[in-house]
Design brief:
elongated; binds magnesium ion; binds adenosine-5'-triphosphate; 4-stranded antiparallel sheet; 2 domains; Rossmann fold; Threonyl-tRNA Synthetase, Chain A, domain 2; about 20% strand; alpha/beta
């Protein structure tokens, strides 16, 4: 007997060790084969209790065949004198079978009468604690249905390296909480705001963009209001770099002139934007990276007022009209608030791409993410300082996601800038008046 117990204990230890090793060395397959089935069974088996605890049940009158009161789940008083009687029962929302995802599972729930997806969002944290998981996100694909997407562990604690970005103006800069790639696609969302406290990962995201865009046929322009310390190392791949407000103002004048020129080219060709032009006529797209945006708007004394007004108007014009003419903005800053002046508020309205890294105050999150779901603002404030690069991203589908950028060191971005320096069009070539040339050519002919 004792020997048999010993053998059983030994076998259990071996199995447990093997499972632990499997989990350690190949977590995804372990999750699909062992973790997910156990989780699915547990979730289905405990759904009534969990829904009841999280306030997602409704009371209904039902006729129950009662012989043993414990057999029915009721919060009402059950008398066992009659076999059939009307009792109050807690009805749970109908739940489908949970389906596995890379980092957890997803399950569709039918809402009960009177329930809205907001009720499930409000209970998301309670659900996460009841199931012992990292987070529960709620979405509603159609009325009456709610999808609960569960992530078991925070998938953003450790992420891989920056993959290549072969599509023009589209860079995979990180990973979303869902496990999907986090893409910044300037052709879909032309202008972006990237906010966050100091050391939250803003410049890292700009580095990721530089590495992704460097091999592509695009002109990169840097506005580095930190005196040039951030972008100067990437100068070989930058067609133009401005490091002070005066230089920015001049460069913005060039951009506005460039826009007017492209506008004329498109009008002459009967095109609405540069993408409708023939391939050989299409001008090179320009991506403008701005670091420390607030510096463009800060006024030390009144003498700067005119320069600020000039810069602010030009930047706003680029934001308003740039998309059609292949000029895209990526603005980084610690605070992008209305206290900086009306120019910044108008600019914010033009930037539909929003990235909010860790912030210290709720105002910055609100200013960056606008009137997204309040849960997004809470999430932005809850980003821990130990995970720089984690951000809340307003997605192209109108939803918000937690995401983390791939770590891209300054050295990596510098190497990419040097390696692809031969692709850098000179600023003179980018801004050369194409319409003027055509007209001149015609005259010569
Ligand atoms: N995705 C990431 N993964 C790992 N480390 C990161 C990530 N993003 C940033 N970091 C690290 O966090 C630190 C701060 O990043 P970064 O310089 O991008 O912050 P910042 O928001 O630009 O700060 P500042 O406002 O001071 O310029 C850097 O040391 C960087 O290496
Ligand atoms: Mg920075």
């Amino acid at each position: 007997m004792f020997e048999r117990l010993l053998w059983l204990a030994l076998a259990a230890t071996v199995v447990a060790t093997l499972l632990l090793c499997w989990r350690r060395w190949h977590r995804p397959s372990f999750w699909f084969v062992v973790g997910y089935p156990l989780a699915a069974i547990t979730v289905r088996a405990t759904w009534r209790k969990v829904a009841l605890g999280c306030g997602l049940t409704k009371k209904r009158q039902r006729f129950w065949f009662t012989t043993v009161p414990g057999l029915i789940s009721s919060t009402g008083t059950v008398r066992v004198r009659r076999r059939f009687q009307r009792v109050t029962v807690d009805t749970k929302p109908w739940m489908w079978l949970p389906l596995p995802t890379r980092h957890g599972w997803r399950v569709t729930v039918h809402t009960l009468e009177g329930q809205v997806p907001g009720d499930y969002s409000a209970a998301a944290e309670r659900l996460a604690h009841s199931w012992g998981v990292h987070a529960v996100r709620v979405s509603s694909p159609r009325p009456g249905r709610v999808v609960l997407a569960v992530t078991v562990r925070d998938p953003l604690v450790r992420i891989d390296d920056l993959p290549p970005s072969p599509d023009l103006l589209k860079v995979t800069v990180g990973r979303l909480e869902t496990g999907h790639p986090w893409e910044i696609d300037f052709r879909t969302v032309p202008h972006w705001l990237n906010a966050g406290a100091t050391q939250s990962g803003k410049s890292n995201l700009a580095n990721a963009l530089i590495v992704g865009l460097a091999p592509q046929p695009v002109a990169l322009v840097g506005f580095d209001l930190k005196g040039g310390v951030e972008f100067t190392p990437y100068a070989p791949r930058l067609s133009a770099l401005a490091t002070s407000r005066t230089e920015c103002a001049d460069l913005l004048d060039d951009l506005v002139a460039l826009m007017a020129d492209r506008m004329e080219t498109c009008r002459d060709a009967g095109a609405r934007n540069i993408w409708q032009l023939d391939d050989h006529d299409r001008p090179v797209p320009v991506v403008v990276l701005v670091d420390e945006l607030a510096e463009l708007y800060l006024m030390a004394d009144k003498s700067e007022k005119d320069e600020i007004a000039r810069t602010s108007t030009a930047l706003l014009r680029v934001a308003q009209l740039g998309r059609a003419f292949g000029i895209y903005l990526f603005c980084c800053g610690q605070r992008i608030g209305s206290d900086l002046g009306p120019g910044v508020t108008a600019l914010r309205a033009q930037c539909s791409g929003r990235v909010c890294h860790r912030v210290n105050d709720p105002e910055t999150a609100t200013m960056t993410l606008g009137d997204l779901d309040p849960a997004a603002l809470v999430s932005a404030r809850a980003i821990p300082a130990e995970t720089p690069g984690v951000a809340i991203v307003a997605g192209q589908d109108g939803q918000w996601y937690r995401a983390r950028s791939f770590y891209v060191s300054e050295a990596t971005a510098e190497y990419a800038a040097q390696r692809h320096a031969y692709l850098t069009p000179s600023w003179a070539a980018v801004t050369a008046p194409r319409v003027g040339d055509t007209v001149r050519d015609l005259h010569v002919a």
